TrEMBL record:
Signal peptide: 1-21
InterPro entries: DUF6175
Organism (species): Pedobacter planticolens
Domain of life assignment: Bacteria
Keyword annotations from UniProtKB, A to Z: Signal
Protein name as annotated: Uncharacterized protein
Length: 315
């Protein structure tokens, strides 16, 4: 009897711990394909090159089916304990920001980093996973069905980490949201399991970002300059080893003028439980280089959640 009670207690603790495991924060968005097929695209200037991006604002203002579809997916995910960011609310926050510059440059001129409208949306949302939804209403006589695709995209790396898709059974229902639920319901749990496996890996091994270190042309130093008998590039690599999760990163390029670090694994959360992105992690490197004995003036720039650039020699 005592053994049985002990076993039940252990099972209770295990189940409780599992249920309290952190889950990824998700934002559901219409896919680029859906936006293009339905005429919701606009152009933005990327350093003189015109690029097409989804016009989410107009899509939400004009397409009631889209709102209903995303609301249905939000509900299905919330019922399964996955926290969600509301895309419409995030877009309102983004629209209220006064600074919507296409390019950031140094105060005295120099290189910059271009952020697309999509990068800015992701940075504002700070979701772990972007859940892209593509759907189409099919008609067979008086019956309708939904063909859909769900793609779980890591918001920091753009890697696809989970996918689901299919076509629901034909129905007389005229409500696209109901048709979507009927099509998705038997696939959503496997999809969520894929999201959770990816997030568990991030929790154990760190989130993946990219960090670049460059120099302004007018700076009289470079990454081969020595401090205490050690080159600056080596000093920065040693800092990365000490501050990444399990010392995991790859030095993809190393010259006197640039360092490129890829597959940089950073903690998901800081000591206060706040999510860490590329900017938050790289700000610590910025402070390290600004302090003695290096005292290097530098500028930190970011692209979305997962890419950061430090440019040495100016602000």
């Amino acid at each position: 009897m005592k053994i049985m009670l002990l076993s039940l207690m252990v099972l209770g603790f295990t189940t409780s711990g599992f249920s309290q495991a952190k889950k990824p924060t998700i934002m559901v968005v219409p896919s680029d394909v859906w936006c293009n097929q339905n005429g919701y695209m606009k152009e933005f200037d990327n350093q003189g090159t015109k690029e097409k991006v989804p016009d989410y604002k107009r899509a939400f203002q004009e397409n009631a089916d889209l709102i209903a579809m995303i609301s249905k997916i939000n509900g299905l995910m919330a019922d399964r304990g996955f926290p969600l960011k509301n895309m419409e609310s995030v877009m309102k926050t983004l629209a209220s920001e006064s600074a919507e510059d296409a390019m950031l440059t140094s105060k005295s001129g120099g290189g910059g980093v271009v952020e697309s409208p999509i990068d800015k949306l992701r940075k504002t949302a700070k979701a772990d996973i972007i859940m892209q939804l593509t759907f189409e209403v099919l008609k067979t006589g008086p019956k309708k069905s939904i063909r859909f695709t769900l793609q779980g995209i890591d918001a920091y790396t753009d890697k696809e980490v989970a996918t689901a898709g299919g076509t629901g059974n034909p129905s007389f229902s005229a409500d696209p949201a109901v048709l979507l639920e009927e099509a998705v319901i038997d696939k959503i749990d496997n999809f969520n399991a894929g999201l959770q496996r990816h997030f568990d890996d991030l929790f154990a091994n760190g989130r993946e970002i990219i960090v670049r270190v460059k120099k302004f042309e007018k700076w009289n130093g470079d990454l081969e300059k020595e401090y205490g008998g050690e080159e600056l590039g080596t000093i920065i690599e040693n800092w990365m080893k000490a501050n990444t999760v399990k010392g995991r990163f790859s030095t993809s390029e190393s010259t006197e003028n640039m360092l490129l670090f890829e597959q940089v694994r950073i903690p998901l959360y800081d000591a206060s439980g706040n999510a860490i992105d590329a900017r938050g992690f790289t700000r610590n490197l910025q402070k390290f280089l600004t302090a003695a004995p290096y005292s290097i003036v530098n500028k930190l720039m970011t692209k979305g959640l997962g890419q950061a650039v430090i440019v040495l020699g100016d602000k």
